[in-house]
């Protein structure tokens, strides 16, 4: 690896570590686990869980017997009253094939970094209950320093390409799968792999599985 490439990687690793520390501070400041814990089983999922943050995003799932919009709204209203919260959006997906109540919360950190939370309140009976947590656990167990570096580099490369072209960034799970299952190392390889492995709408793969 050239000195310039090593510097780029070091920068990505440092940013990811900094975002992980900041994510923990923000979750504590907003008391997300504490407040949602009054209602159900709180699970941190996504890149903030397994240390692959390259954008300031935090994902939670909260499991209950039956999601209640009023109870969830009361908790989110309490969270949103904290200084730094700049936006709150709610959607009801209970009558869909992916049943749940969703909130997006936007937060401006003291250093000027803009964060967003994706929070799902879902029933224990959800057809994919526990899948995101199982994926997160598998990622924690599977990632090595080498694959972590490859995923962060590929995420950054694909994000830059999307920004330049005005297109959407690929899903994080598709990038992880391409690296961990397909041994992909760059955007060109990712495109080729994706053509042969078109992602399903609901991805059920996780490291250590063949599906």
Automatic annotation (TrEMBL):
What's this protein's name? Nucleotidyltransferase domain-containing protein
Organism of origin is Humidesulfovibrio mexicanus
């Amino acid at each position: 690896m050239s000195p310039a490439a090593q510097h780029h990687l070091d920068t990505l690793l440092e940013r990811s570590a900094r975002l992980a520390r900041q994510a923990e501070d923000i979750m504590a400041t907003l008391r997300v686990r504490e407040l949602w814990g009054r209602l159900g089983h709180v699970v941190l999922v996504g890149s903030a869980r397994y240390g692959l943050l390259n954008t300031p995003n935090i994902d939670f799932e909260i499991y209950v017997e039956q999601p209640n919009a009023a109870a969830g709204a009361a908790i989110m209203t309490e969270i949103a009253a904290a200084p730094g919260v700049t936006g709150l959006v709610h959607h009801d997906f209970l009558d869909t094939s992916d049943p749940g109540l969703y909130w997006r919360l936007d937060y401006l950190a003291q250093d000027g970094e803009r964060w967003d939370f994706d929070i799902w309140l879902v029933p224990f009976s959800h057809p994919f209950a526990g899948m995101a947590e199982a994926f997160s656990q598998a990622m924690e167990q599977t990632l090595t320093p080498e694959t972590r570096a490859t995923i962060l580099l590929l995420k950054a490369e694909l994000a830059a390409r999307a920004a330049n072209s005005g297109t959407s960034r690929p899903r994080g799970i598709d990038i992880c799968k391409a690296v961990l299952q397909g041994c992909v190392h760059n955007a060109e390889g990712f495109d080729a792999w994706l053509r042969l492995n078109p992602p399903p709408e609901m991805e059920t793969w996780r490291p250590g599985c063949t599906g």
